[in-house]
Amino acid sequence: MPCYRCGARQTDPTRGASPWKRAVRDERQVLVCPRCQAIDGWTADLDHCTACHSSTLVCRLGEIECRACGHVRTAERTGDNLVTSEAPGLSEEVEAALSRVLHRRAAPT
Prior knowledge:
Strand content: 15-25%
Order of helices and strands: EEHEEEH
Oligomer: single chain
Largest sheet: 3 strands, antiparallel
Radius of gyration: 17 Å
Low-confidence stretches: 78-85
């Protein structure tokens, strides 16, 4: 999944904790790359906890949980709040990578 702000894609992680942050925006799980985290006010357009106003939220199974205070609420947008990516060409990149790994020939067009 790419960074929701700039579209950068994660690469294979090195050892240790990932510098990418998970967050929730419009009740959807998103990732934020380290470069975008360096921008002042990068959390302004993220969803915030209704109890403590933290932006350290995670979205899973129709619920949004605050990692700061533990407050859990039901997501208002049920059914479409799964992790999604609207990055252009991602499915084609995945298909090409699978073809390389599995030594498949490209399908004729």
